[in-house]
Amino acid sequence: MSTPRSEPITYAGAGVDVHAGDRAVELMKDSVRRAQRPEVLGGLGGFAGMFDASALRGMRRPVLATSTDGVGTKVAIAQAMDVHDTIGQDLVGMVVDDIVVSGAEPLFMTDYIACGRVVPERIAAIVSGIARGCELAGVALVGGETAEHPGLLDPDEYDVAGAATGVVEHDQILGPHRVERGDVVLALPSSGLHSNGYSLVRRVVAAAGWEWDRHVDELGRTLGEECLEPTRIYTRALLEVVRGDLGLHALSHVTGGGLAANLARVLPPGELAVVERVWSPPPVFGLVQRLGRVPLDDLEQTLNMGVGFVAVVAAGTASRVQEVLAAQGTDSWVVGVVADPATGRQHGVPVVQGAKGVDGGAVQLVGDYPVAAGVTRTQ
Fold first, then answer.
1. 15 in Cβ contact with 148 (< 8 Å)
2. Which of 25, 44, 184, 273 is deepest in the core (most CB within 10 A)?
3. For the whole model, what pTM was predicted?
4. How many CB atoms lie within 10 A of CB 31?
5. Are residues 149 and 249 in the same domain?
6. Tell me: the pLDDT tens digits for 18-43?
7. Alpha carbons 49 and 188: distance in angstroms, whole number
8. Could you list the residue range(s) of the whole structural domain that residue 117 is in?
């Protein structure tokens, strides 16, 4: 027979501090209050977030759109730098801007934080970034969960995930069914690496023996600061275009897989977009390539290369779309066209076709980046 323990085992003794969790909630309340919409019912701490959907009764055929995501191994850099108030904006950007791709307006979001140990100030910092991202997107943060997992995660480890819901009129859904030959492809700039490809970036940095606090002159700041630059959120600017009836046919959020693969997902099967490398990727992309001698194909299939979003628009309205985006503080430039595959395809240039299970169109990236960008075809 086993001998009973002389001392009781408590939840705290097992590594879970419920009082720390309560303290974290208190610290995050002000941030969450700023990330609200009039439709939100109730307050922080309920078992479920509630959102008044009565406005949907005025829609002809409302279609709900939903998305869920995380930020991948970017959290490892936040933990290494002990900077936690930006990763939340990354999370919001990854989730809500996927919803905008369909033409839907994101309405509300929830988050989930798993950690090895609840440090109230750290959890509050993460949530402050989530709330800031929701403010930027015009999305309500209606709830969330923080889970302490001692033994599964180290005390200073955590991961974040989130989900959001939006709505769009059925006859206003964007996508391949709207795309036509002759449409113009517009590129919208990223704020840097965003939240994809950090397994490659971290491997390159480790192999080079660099530290995250290393100052890099061409970046104008430390490597860690550059890599933690928050993901740009495009929601408000793109919704202005969506609502303007400006010949917007399709949108693509450039995340995992890079520009070509994500653009191919929103093209009809059999159609081809020819995209020219006319822009200069920010210095961090050339730095990653040089440090790791990363082949261009691999770089472009992993990182956004300075383009965070792509819009496919009618040729006659492209300039007007650019004007509306500029009025919202978002730059854009023409990078390509939806061409006739029989005549537009350039021989000898690789074609990216379909991605992530989507039987979409094809994309060719042609030409070379400007020399000053420091991104080259061969290493």
1. yes
2. 273
3. 0.92
4. 22
5. no
6. 676 666 667 666 766 777 888 888 77
7. 33
8. 18-44+60-169
Share of the chain above pLDDT 70, in %: 90
Q: Is there a contact between 89 and 130 (Cβ–Cβ < 8 Å)?
A: yes
Place of tokens 């492209």: 318
Do both 184 and 158 map to the same domain?
A: no
Amino acid residing at 147: A
Where helices occur in 148-197 by DSSP H, the ranges are none
Count of structural domains, the chain: 2
Q: Whose structure tokens read 């950007």?
A: 93
Residue that finishes a domain, picked among 104, 137, 169: 169
Give per-residue pLDDT as tens, 82-138. 999 999 999 999 999 999 999 999 999 999 999 999 999 999 999 999 999 999 999
Q: What is the pLDDT of residues 130-157, one digit of tens each?
A: 999 999 999 999 989 999 999 999 999 9
Q: What is the CATH number of the domain that holds 98?
A: 3.30.1330.10
Q: Is residue 3 part of a domain?
A: no
Cα angle 183-185-189, degrees, rounded to a multiple of 5 = 160
Residue 270 in tokens? 């059999």
Neighbours of 289 (CB within 10 A): 21
